[in-house]
Design brief:
Layout lengths: L1 H14 L3 H5 L3 H18 L2 H6 L3 H11 L2 H23 L45 H11 L5
Helix pairs in contact: 1-6, 3-6
Length: 152
Amino acid sequence: MTWLRALAAAGLSVFMPGAGHALIRDWLRALVFAGLYISAILLFFPTEQIAAAGSISDAMDIATSETDTISQFVLSFLVLFAAIDATFRAMGFPPGSNNGESVEGPSCPECGKELDADLEFCHWCTTRIEPVEPESESADADQSEREEPTRP
């Protein structure tokens, strides 16, 4: 399921940078990529001319003819970088990354994020977690008694 999640994150990031990061619940990166993309659109597109266009086809003609190559490159680079970053983050790269959070309790073996002790699955990546049987304290006490040498 991880590869399917990565493909969905990449596809959403191509549609709107930041949306793929929102899918994988990486909220800070989602806001950064969406903010960068919207800022670049406002900076590089002739928004006044597009808003004054009479139809959508006229607006698209204005957007393609009035936008220079460098502006198109910047927008394409942002989309591509957001898609690649969302894909790698959804696949779990870099290994052990958990969005800067420190995991104090048990962590998921699949995604590395902190687990809720009441659930039998990871609520981040839906990996089923097998419950661990706690060893009885009496068994531990018996083991420690056997290991200690007897004193005269």
